[in-house]
Design goal:
Layout lengths: L2 E4 L2 E4 L6 H7 L18 E6 L18 E3 L12 E5 L21 E4 L2 E4 L2 E5 L5 E7 L3 E8 L5 E8 L9 H8 L6 H21 L6 E8 L1 H7 L15 H7 L8 E4 H4 L8 E4 L9 H9 L9 E5 L4 E6 L4 E6 L20 E8 L2 E6 L7 E2 L1 H13 L15 E5 L4 E4 H25 L8 E5 L1 H5 L2 H6 L11 E5 L1 H11 L1 H11 L3 E2 L8 H8 L10
Parallel strand pairs: 1-5, 9-12, 12-14, 15-23, 17-25, 18-20, 23-24
Antiparallel strand pairs: 1-2, 3-4, 3-5, 6-7, 7-8, 9-10, 10-11, 13-14, 15-16, 16-17, 18-19, 21-22
Length: 539
């Protein structure tokens, strides 16, 4: 009898037992709301090994691709095989830190005596709590802040891995998936996961979910549109704009911001709660970047600054409160674990720092245990160290002519030449965005007074190493500030202040969007960006 693997845990295989049963045995929480009948499509797991040892997919699983299954429908039928699975709702390393910005408390919902009001309308009786929820819906992770609307204090933060992974690791694949036979599945899975987290939060903190009266959600254009049930197909086609952007341009809407009720969206909080999404900036630059701008106080900046929000889709903003330019860089998932042989997101067991000493890699892992793979910060370190030591040239070729370099030889883990090529292209996307926007704006890298690095990946990256390989602009290091999860902070600001919602909507409408691919020498810049060397500071 062979074992079933989940992380470091193993259990004996039993014929007819479902992966959901094994999750129960391991005390692993798997979302479900249908009583394990296969109807809710929430209990998605990734089968990493032994897919053929399970019963064939049922009709309820037709929306899933590749090695993804519903835990309740996948039953063991071959006990002689090894089976390994992972729940898609894993708990990532929570990034709660941000720049922090004090704003006057002006929430949409307020208490008056024993009543709860929106404006002059009484919507509910006060029952001891009045909460709001700020949510950053990222391509890879989702993070939530529970906010006390009476004090403005954030009282709880939670996060989980984006469960839409089965639809593709990047936004273009998810757009394609959502436009196919299973339209609405990505929205449903996300809403189910958010509702699941709200339920966990309410049980842990002992309050009723109906005490949440206001919700602010931000995300890139694709993630936002899919979540709100907006057809995202136009985002994947030239001119890469949401149909909501197009409606504003046609004069059919005043703003790209969204307001719906929780009941309309299917969010399990107070049914009449308003669910707001901040404005889009342009093309793939979404409401998460608008939230970033609020978090760093761009509406008050007189000096020229630069914001780089690093992720599967990296966004670049240059300017001040008088003039702003923005661009989106389709970096892809390479630095977040996708398409790299031993790549993984920033979870426990991921190699996060690397130093090469006497030709051998020395590393640390998240959690301090044995390496399970390597995450983005580790990959940046590794590439920079390979260049510093001369082990790899600027073209990404190993000096000894080999096809790989072992960063954890005792575990058989290496970075291959093809991995380096994928990383070079992902890096170049970031390079192009920064280089072109700086040039279009008319400011050299050393003319930037402050470079803000936003997002989970950027928070943990070694800045000097990132500059060394051309991942970020060659701005003097003392001017670089990591702002953490600025999107979540900005969403929280919008939750605390309706005035700031109006501020960012006005600002977003005036930002100039730069289409990178229309730049005449784009290809030349992209080729330069594939080199592992610092970005030039000249225009």
């Amino acid at each position: 009898m062979s074992p079933l693997h989940y992380g470091d845990e193993t259990l004996d295989l039993v014929s007819g037992k479902s992966l959901f049963d094994y999750a129960d045995s391991l005390d692993v929480r798997v979302p479900t709301s249908c009583g394990r009948s296969g109807e809710c499509h929430e209990c998605i797991v990734e089968v990493k090994q032994g897919l053929d040892a399970l019963t064939p997919p049922e009709a309820s699983e037709e929306f899933l691709r590749d090695n993804y299954r519903l835990a309740c429908r996948a039953l063991v039928q071959d006990t002689s095989a090894d089976i390994e699975f992972a729940v898609l709702r894993r708990q990532p390393r929570i990034l709660t830190e941000s720049v922090g910005r004090d704003v006057e408390l002006e929430p949409l919902v307020h208490r008056r005596g024993e009543g709860i009001y929106v404006g002059d309308e009484r919507v509910d009786a006060y029952r001891g709590q009045m909460y709001g929820l700020a949510i950053d819906v990222g391509t890879t992770t989702v993070v939530l802040n529970l906010v006390d609307l009476e004090s403005g204090e954030t009282i709880h933060t939670a996060s989980f891995e984006n469960p839409q992974k089965f639809g593709g690791s990047d936004i273009m694949h998810r757009i394609s998936y959502d436009g196919g036979a299973y339209t609405g599945e990505l929205q449903q899975v996300m809403l189910s996961s958010i509702n699941f987290e709200i339920g966990e939060m309410s049980r842990q903190l002992r309050f009723h979910r109906r005490r949440i009266y206001d919700v602010v959600m931000v995300g890139n254009t694709t993630m936002r549109d899919i979540l709100f049930g907006v057809d995202a197909q136009s985002v994947g086609e030239r001119p890469y704009k949401s149909i909501i952007e197009l409606a504003v341009e046609d004069g059919d809407r005043d703003s790209t911001a969204i307001n719906v009720t929780a009941k309309e969206l299917g969010l399990r909080v107070f049914p009449g709660a308003n669910v707001y999404s901040g404005p889009l900036i342009g093309c793939h630059v979404g409401s998460d970047v608008a939230a970033d701008l609020l978090a760093i106080g761009m509406d008050e900046k007189e000096e020229t600054v630069m914001l780089v929000d690093v992720g599967t889709n990296t966004e670049v903003i240059v300017g001040n409160r008088h003039r702003l330019m923005a661009a989106s860089c389709p970096a892809g998932p390479a630095f977040e674990g996708g398409e790299i042989t031993y790549g993984m997101p920033g979870y426990e067991g991921a190699v996060e720092t690397v130093e090469i000493v006497d030709g051998k890699a020395q590393y640390t892992t998240i959690g301090g245990g044995q390496p399970q793979g390597i995450c983005g910060s580790g990959l940046v370190d590794l590439l920079a160290e390979l260049r510093r030591t001369g082990t790899m040239n600027q073209l990404g070729v190993f000096d000894d002519g080999s096809d790989s370099f072992y960063f954890a030889p005792e575990n058989g883990m290496s970075v291959s030449r093809s991995d380096v090529s994928a990383l070079a292209q992902a890096k170049s996307a970031n390079y192009c965005g920064q280089r072109i926007v700086l040039r279009r704006y008319g400011v050299p890298a050393d003319g930037i007074e402050k470079l803000y690095l936003a997002g989970g990946f950027a928070n943990y990256v070694d800045v000097a190493n990132a500059v060394r390989i051309g991942f970020i602009a060659n701005v003097p290091q003392e001017r670089v500030t990591k702002v953490g999860n600025a999107a979540l902070e900005g969403a929280t600001i919008m939750l605390r202040s309706t005035r700031m919602r109006r501020v960012i909507e006005d600002m977003a409408s005036q930002i100039e969007h730069v289409e990178l691919e229309t730049t005449p020498d784009f290809f030349d810049i992209f080729v330069d960006g594939c080199m592992f060397e610092p970005m030039g500071s000249a225009l």
